Amino acid sequence: MKKRVWFSVLSSLLFVSACSGEKSVPTDAQSGVSGDLTVYTAVEEELIPDYMASFEEKYPGVDVKIVRDSTGIMTAKLLAEGENTSADVVWGLAASSLLALDQKDMLKEYTPAGAENIKPAFKDKNEPLKWTGNTAFMTGIAVNTEELKKLNVPVPKTYEDLLKPEYKGLIVMPHPASSGTGYLTVNGWLQMMGEKAGWTYMDKLHKNIGTYTHSGSKPAKMAAAGEYPIGISLVYTAVQMKEDGAPVEVILPEEGLGWEVEANALINKKDAGNEEAAQAFLDWAIEEDVMKKYFDANGFTTMDTDFELPASFPKDVEEKMYKENDLYWAAENRDTILTEWESKYGTKAEPKE
């Protein structure tokens, strides 16, 4: 029996998954890869076992320790640890966060096998690559139509609509310091509207916000449950809520969609004794069967595929994604943006669990 240990940083809980039974016989090249590997990730906790089963089957000689937290907290952890981090690989973290790590010389060049299949917008612009994207996530507006009908309030169609007084206290959105979804939303407004107009917009929106959550998917779930009728949240989570039968309408604001890439990178370590296993992990992370898992979970993948979207998924999402989204600008200005955001709006953040 082979055991894998998963740590959840946020909850300080230890999860042990025992993997046993029949496994397919690995190839000689795969069976020769072995050792211990520490992976830092912001992938949703409930998805990790399904993803990792594929890696465990392919590389049974590699013992993987997963350290998981939300994007903002994981980014802060990595930056604080610096060259002393125990991470060998970062998996499924926002690309703008990886770029912030690169500014501290924490990433090492490595172009995974199959990286040529990733669309240019979703991988490092330099060669060899320092990061490679798995999927992209974008924000829209999840609206509980039944709750708004009770309040005799119209369904908003644009971000500008959300400033109207009738929505006061009805809106929830993610906190950008703890949620990658929150940061991509704020970054999207600042880039789409311009910095001055973007901050002015958020000043006005803040008056209508009920609370800022520490999860990017939570606003859509709260909208579906009727806790707050309007959630600025992940598009795909809103779609899932609708597919599950909630009275949710998924709005793609006319101004465009802010978006971010969920990506992977190799940590730059002076004495990396397990680089073969780390590179094997990064190769595995963009294989087509794993990409299918990302697609099933997020409704999007960074390579061209014929995977089938749910019927409720809006057909024009990729066309509405802000075309000039600059992840490098988002990384360079991250600390400044978060400091200003916290000073202006942090008082409405929900308590941390």
Automatic annotation (TrEMBL):
Q: Does the keyword Protease apply?
A: no
Q: Which CDD domains match?
A: PBP2_Fbp_like_1 (cd13544)
Signal sequence segment: 1-20
Q: What domain of life is recorded for the organism?
A: Bacteria
UniProt binding sites for Fe cation: Y236
Matching entries from Pfam families are given as: SBP_bac_6
* A molecular-function term among this protein's GO annotations: thiamine binding
List the transmembrane segments. Answer: none
What keywords are annotated for this sequence in UniProt? Iron, Metal-binding, Signal
Write down any Gene Ontology CC term.
outer membrane-bounded periplasmic space
Annotated SUPFAM superfamilies: Periplasmic binding protein-like II (SSF53850)
GO terms, biological process: thiamine transport
Protein name (record): Iron ABC transporter substrate-binding protein
